[in-house]
Each structure stands twice: as C-alpha cells, then as structure tokens.
Amino acid sequence: MSVQLDxxxxxxxxxxxxxEEERELQYYGLAQLDLVTDRFWTEIxxxxxxxxxxxxxxxxxxxxxxxxxxxxxxFHLGEFDDALSFALGAGEQFxxxxxxxxxxxxxxxxxxxxxxxxxxxxxxxGLTIDKRLEAVVERMFERCFETKEYGQVVGISIExxxxxxxxxxxxxxxxxxxxxxxxxxxxxLINSIHVQTQVLELLVKVHLQFxxxxxxxxxx
Length: 220
Fold this sequence. Notes:
Elements: H1 12-17, H2 23-45, H3 48-56, H4 63-76, H5 80-89, H6 101-123, H7 131-146, H8 150-159, H9 163-172, H10 175-186, H11 193-207, H12 215-218
Helix pairs in contact: 2-4, 3-4, 4-5, 5-6, 6-7, 8-9, 8-10, 9-10, 9-11, 10-11
C-alpha cells in the first residue's frame, strides 16, 4: 500500500487505518499521518483519541510514533503541556536534530519546565523530575556541545542549576571569554544567593586552572 501524500486532500483514509485490527496497517497509517500533520492537523485532531489509545496500548510496538503524532497535533492546537507530555512519551522518535518550529517550541517548553522544577528542588529536596524530561534536556545539551553553542549551554545550565554542565561548557569553549560572559552578564541575574555563591566558587576554580590565573578577574 502506498499513498501519494502530495496529492492527498484529506487525512480521512489514513485515519481509517487506525481502526484496522492488523497492526501493520495501524503503523502505516500513523507513519503517514506523521508526515501530514502540518497540513491536516485540524482534521486529525478530531480523531486524537484513536491515536492516544494506540499510545496507551502497551502491546502496540509503535507506541512512541503514536505519541509523536499526538504531540504534533496538540502543538498545533496550542496545548503545549500536552504536546510536551506526548513528546516525552515519544522517546527517541522525538528528534532534536529537526529544526522545525514544532521541535524548537517543545524543546523550549521542556527547558522552561526543567528550570522551574530544578528551582523547586531548592525548597523540596524530595521533589523528583521525570526521567524523560531530564533525557530531553540532556540531549539538548549534547546537541549544543556538538554545534559548539557554548553560550547557550552556559545560560541554560545556570538557570537550571546544573553546575556540572556549566563547568563542562567553560572548559570546552573559549574559557576566558565564557568566564567573562558569566561574570559580567549572568551572575547578577541569579536570584538565589546559594546558587550565585556556587557559581562564583566554580568560576574561581576554573580561573585557577590557568597557568597564569587572572587574579584581578577572580576578585571582581
């Protein structure tokens, strides 16, 4: 079975495949729907429950694909919390290498949620963060390291109280320039004295790794 997606004028036929009993037909329908969500999201949204049922069915081999399609539909509906929730359920199917508005929006929403929860952990050490959310953030960090976007890593790692990532970023890029950026533009924006102190201590540690430490900068 093959569908000419360019000439498709409705998602109805693909949606009907989700009602089939044969798993391969359900998978094919989902795979094709994933390719046309931008064009037919309004129509697909009327059948979002069918997609959610497939995701919730633990015997369905392609649950993550169902989660990805559901996430894209909720994104188009402006329901970003639901879109993020299903994106987390999509696992590796949610690719950060894609530069679409959908991916950028969900990643930004994930980062904001992660930063919020990390701040809450200061007051509640027993608070746990969804491992899947942490995985998306870690993947985002790794992508930034691969593309050498160290400034972005520095900013997010400070907001997220991830000093381990901050130290790695300072050591990976132009260390002196990044140290200056953190000291001049970031430290004063940290609203937690405890975190601010930790960041300053880390900066001193990194400064002292140079053969000729800039003691004047350390004392600023």
